[in-house]
Every structure is written in C-alpha cells, then in structure tokens.
Write a structure and sequence with these properties.
Helix content is 40%, strand content 18%. It has 393 residues and is an alpha/beta fold. The strands form three sheets. Strands 7-6-8-9-10-13-14 form a seven-stranded mixed β-sheet, sandwiched between helices. The protein is elongated and about 65 Å long. It binds phenylalanine (PHE).
Length: 393
C-alpha cells in the first residue's frame, strides 16, 4: 500500500500533527473522529481504489474523478475558505489491502470522508473501519446489496445495486436478445459476481428462460477451457459472465477458440474504457454489458464534464471516472452543509442527499443508503464501448 501524499508532510505543516502522535493503534480506531478535527487548515478527504493489480483501471479512473471534484472545489474557494486535500491509497485490487487503507485513513490521516472502493468485496472489507471510526464511506461503484446492508450506517453508495442490475440484464437477455438458454461462468472469489449471477438466474428463469450451465472460476485463473467445454455442450444462446474485464478478455478468447458462438453478456464489471476490447480482441466484438454511464449516451447532458475530464486526463471518462466524480461531489456537498464537521454530523448530511444533479444521473440517497438510478447497455463495436440503450428502474 502506497500513500500518494505522505503523512509526514502533513505533520510538518502542523495540520494534524499533535493528534496523530496520540492516535490509537490502527486496529482500535477512534470513535467520532469528526469532532476531533481541527477547525482551520485544509480538510482531508480519502480515496481507496485499485491503482495497481489486475483491476487497476477501476481505481485509476475513479481517482481521476475524485481529483477533478477536489480541484474544482478548491478553485472555487474550498469549504468555508479551507481547501480540500486528497489522501489516496492503493488497494492493489485486494480486500485486505483495502481494509488496511481504510484503517489508515481513519486513524492516521483523520479524513472527513472516504470515496471507495470500486469492487464490492473490497468495500465490504473496509466497512468495519468506517463504522468504528465513524467516518462516512461513499462507494462509487460497489453494487452488491450487502455493501450497505451489512456495512452499517456509515457506508453509502452513489450507484444502483445488483438487485436492479441482475434483473435488467435478465430482461434484456430474454426480451431484447430473445435468449432461451444461458450458460453462466461465475468468479467465486467476487461477492459481486456471485450476487449478480444469482439475481440474473432467478429473474431469467422466472421469465421462462433456462440456465443450462453454471460454471465456477476464481479471479486470476488463466485457463477456462474445462468450464467452457462443458458450457459449449449445453448449446447456450448467451454466455453470461458477471465478473471483471480482467478475466473476461482471456475467457472470451478461449470461448471463441473452442467454437462457442454465443453472445457474450456481462455487467458493470466489464466497464474499462478500451481495455476489454484490447484484452479480448475479435472475441469480444458485439459483446454487451450494463453499466452506469456512457459518454456517447445522447440523453446524458454532460458535455462540460466530458470536456473537463478530457482536458485534465487526456481521454474521455467511462462509468468509473463519472462515478468517482459523483461520489466525491456528494461527499463535498454534504460537508458544506455540515459546516465542515465530520463524523455523525457529516453522516447525517450525506444521508439527506436528495435530487443531487450527478453526471451518472440524479442521486437521492434512500433509507438503505443506496441510490436508485437508471442503467445503460453498452455494446463493443470495433473494440469501442458504444451506447446501446438506457434502462430505468
Ligand atoms: N460493480 C462492481 C462491484 O461491485 C464494480 C464496478 C463498477 C466495476 C463499475 C466497474 C464499473 O464489484
């Protein structure tokens, strides 16, 4: 784990120095750290995401979005004249590292809120530190229902959940693609993949379709030929792979090598800009997935954001950049309303977020601390994610 802006620098600036020396050991976590915040100087906010490792695209893009939101806020005078300062950590795409990062942000950096993590399993691992330190955590893209239901009152998300996503994918498969037979390949190490497969299968079956094969793999596997050979023998119309782009690329190549012609279908875990097209090549041509945002969605009024993001980072944002930006802005907006006070006061203001004008849609935080939002369906055309449809809850 590598902090991007080192803690000692902050101490030297006398911002939080004395408090940090007496900070309890990471495992303990201070209660109500919000009230222990200094009343002047920069306001620290945190980010945790995969900046290295197989799913590095997720964290790098989301962090861009957070950074943009922080820079804009500071350019406009900060909050009560105090600038925000971003403390960012790499989860390396691993739950244990994500949990360590959250503990550091809470006990050492004393941040007011944290944007993170992208992957549901990592957010679940971070939640206990958010609860014990009473530091709100806003997950930009963790869609598994358990992230908020088990994560406790300090965990929020600005995206839809897999209860919605799994159902819309099942409807899309059955009604739009007219599929009868679906073979699933499910990453058993990912809470996200396991949960999404379950919702999808339940709904697809209820709509009269058939799950003809349900095969397992584990994140990071490289040989899927055994599972794919069994899946092929069941003659599926669709291969549903509710995992991450990093595994889908090689999986798709092997499926085509084995002569599987079925349409490839997935969820938001495939969202990776041009990465999936590069990893999968011709094998993923025409593949479809649901996600939170598409830069070429004609219905999205986000031209300013696209231009700003492109100017700052040299490429257009995908769902991860847009959700990182939205999550940070929801936190910043609440921080403004809380008078720059963290802890339970800030938690309360985040929970009160209503009709927030986000890039990925209007954000209202419900009683379960989730957002209810539309999804988009994207198709890979010549390797490029291309907007295909918008689906409302
Ligand atoms: N929804 C995925 C999860 O919960 C993460 C993700 C979201 C990945 C959006 C890409 C884009 O694990």
């Amino acid at each position: 784990m590598r902090p991007f802006q080192l803690v000692p620098l902050l101490c030297a600036l006398t911002l939080l120095g004395c408090e940090r020396k007496q900070a309890p050991a990471p495992a303990a976590g201070p209660k109500g750290s919000g009230s222990a915040q200094p009343t002047s100087g920069p306001l620290p906010v945190g980010f945790v995401g995969a900046l290295t490792g197989p799913e590095a695209h997720f964290g790098l893009e989301s962090r861009n979005g957070v950074q943009l939101a922080v820079e804009e806020t500071n350019a406009a005078g900060g909050i009560q004249g105090r600038p925000l300062v971003l403390r960012s950590y790499d989860s390396q795409s691993r739950p244990e590292e994500a949990a360590n990062a959250m503990t550091r942000l809470v006990t050492q950096d004393r941040v007011l809120f944290v944007v993170g993590e992208n992957q549901s399993s990592n957010s679940l691992a971070m939640a206990p530190a958010a609860a014990s330190g009473e530091v709100p955590m806003i997950a930009p893209s963790s869609t598994n229902p358990r992230v908020t239901s088990e994560g406790g009152p300090f965990v929020f998300r600005v995206c839809f959940t897999d209860t919605f996503q799994g159902q819309l994918l099942a409807r899309f498969a059955r009604e739009t693609l007219k599929a009868e037979r679906v073979a699933m390949l499910v990453d058993q190490k990912s809470d996200y993949a396991v949960g999404l497969a379950k919702v999808f299968a339940g709904r697809f079956t209820a709509l009269g379709g058939k799950i003809v094969s349900d095969e397992a793999y584990a994140k990071g596997d490289t040989d899927f030929r055994g599972q794919l050979t069994r899946a092929k023998s069941t003659r599926p119309d669709i291969l549903f792979i509710p995992g991450y782009y990093s595994d889908v690329g090689p999986l798709a190549r092997q499926a085509r090598e084995l002569g599987i012609r079925a349409t490839l279908l997935g969820g938001d875990g495939w969202d990776s800009g041009e990465r999936l097209g590069q990893l999968g090549g011709a094998a993923v041509e025409g593949a479809l997935y649901s996600t939170h945002f598409a830069a070429d969605n004609p219905g999205a009024r986000v031209k300013d954001f696209l231009a700003k993001y492109q100017a700052r980072f040299g490429h257009l944002p995908d769902a991860l950049g847009a959700l990182g930006y939205d999550a940070a802005r929801v936190g910043i907006d609440a921080l403004r309303r809380s008078g720059a006070v963290g802890g339970p006061t800030l938690r309360e203001q985040i929970a009160r977020t209503r009709d927030f004008d986000g890039i990925t849609g209007r954000i209202t935080i419900g009683p379960d601390r989730d957002a209810v939002k539309p999804a988009v369906i994207v198709k890979l055309v010549k390797g490029q994610p291309t907007f295909a449809a918008e689906v409302s809850p």
